[in-house]
Amino acid sequence: MTLTDTAVRNTKPKDKSHKLFDGGGLFLLVNPNGSKYWRLKYRFHGKEKLLALGVYPDTTLKSARDKRDGARKLLASGIDPSEARKAEKATRNSDNSFEAVAREWWTERTPNWSESHSSRIMLRLENDVFPWIGSKPIGDITPPILLTVLNRVKSRGAIETAHRIHQSCSQIFRYAIATHRAERDSAADLKGALPPVKKKHHPSITDPKQIGGLLRAIDGYQGSFVTRCALQLAPLTFVRPGELRHAEWTEIDLDKEEWRIPAEKMKMKTVHIVPLSTQAIAVLNDIKPLTGNGQYVFPGIRSPKRPMSENTVNAALRRLGYTKNEMTGHGFRSMASTILNEQGWHMDAIERQLAHTERDLVRASYNYAQHLPERVKMMQAWADYLDGLRSGAKANSLTRDVK
What we know:
Belongs to the 'phage' integrase family. By secondary structure, the chain is of the alpha+beta class.
């Protein structure tokens, strides 16, 4: 005798679990606590097995019968319904695993990042996250599970890396929410769970007298002429080391006295304008006869088709006697920022020239020329100031007259 909706609804619990059979192996298991579960009893290769079909009333009698009929079709084809369900779940979990979602997020975001930044993010995930939670469904990853991963990184003293991983995981969770594969950002609940990062500043020389000595040392550099020109241009433009070594002649307009770095080369993926002082133009004119017919202003030693090595400028500074704790290629930026702020130049003009752009990429795309007239004046005044330090002039005699 088959079941009816009324019979299923009105069935009361007993002291022991009991079953109501519908036919074809389908039955309703009624427990003493009143819970009701649909089950399918079947045989596969002579062995009796059970398949859970849902909980009543979420799964109605009709739905349970449909699931039973689907399972029996699989049996008729020689397929075990239980194994088919496991395979389906594995596939579903694979698509929704943390690693699958993270790689999908990374693929969508990476066009907006520099190659080095993109690679660093994936390397951190592959080394410190995927081995432990990569295979887990992203919706099943709770804050304590994620914290265990972050604490593993923290335990080896890599506090900053742990924070960066936490930030990336939060973005991945938000992407999963947007794509309907998670309901919450588990990383958000861990705010404050990691100890703060002690900020490290790039070693830099900011004492005017010492800057003068550095500039004279650069002018007397006895190594590669290309390297010396790069060293000379670095303090005049204070771009990031990667932006300097990847400079291309097509980006530089000597007549307009401007170097326009395309968005894809910039950390924040927005165009960056570097006004060129007369001193910077002189450096570029010096090297142009040597490299002007090629792609890069500062080509590599082994191949002119590749840019200068990322270690070249730092290695040259070591050759000049400056240790890694005294001065780096990145330190020219700190040098300029510190002194220009002390001299009273407009803070926004300094920040714009350092390419510290807004996180809002849409807004930033319209603002790459912001404060440009002020920046043009500032870059020339800065170059003149450096000339004064090189010749031994008193630092305060070259500061800006702030109005």
